[in-house]
Amino acid sequence: MTGRIKKLKEFLEAQPSDSFLQHALALEYVKIEDDTTARNLFETILAREPGYVGSYYHLGRLLERVGENETAIVVYEKGVVAAKTAGDNHAKNELQMALDDLMD
What we know:
The protein is mainly alpha-helical. Helix content is 81%, strand content 0%. The mean pLDDT is 96.
């Protein structure tokens, strides 16, 4: 376990439902290729807070990497809708590009 993972877990003990901390922790797990743990964290965030737009992109990329393209498409599509709802055009465009690339 890296020092960053340990520190983020300590912060999460005090704030277990903090999406920012969980997202940061998931990204650390992506870095060490612990895809199962990262996926669980991203899915937990999105189940609790579907408007947490950034997690759609990273979960979609993770799913692509492990060969779950159909699931990645669904995640990207949900992310596009969430980004539109949030008025986040940058994230919407990024998610749409990832979706388009995957569907080509």
